[in-house]
Amino acid sequence: MTDAGIPARGDRWLRAVGYGFLAEALTVLTIIAIVMAYRFLFARGLSDADYAAFGMLTGKTVGIVGGALFTVLLARRLMPRLTHHFIEHGLVLAVTAIAFSVGGSLAGHHGLPDGYLLASVLKLTAGALAGFLYSRSTSRNRNVV
Description:
4 helices, 145 residues, mainly alpha
């Protein structure tokens, strides 16, 4: 650790990778939780085909929206631990989330379902935007002091 609780240089990049993995894991866990709640709490007794269709729709919707949301939330959580390169760290977080998303899909689905390009673009935008907004807020705060 360096002064003021800021991690050492290499540690910051590893933290961005870890947060990217966490963003994707939270997205997957959210999809699973929604599908399980639908199946066992809200819509009991449907056919397997109905549950599969709901799972596909949920995966597509939450994968796109939730993936970007978790990326921006975790990028915002990462930013106070940094001293510079905010946008780059946000992009590393997003690229890591994308890599795990694509890797998991290729392993599980043997392909990429519709919406992966949009989800990836939104994750990149979310990571970069979180870094940009944080860098703007810290530069404004430095000028005030």
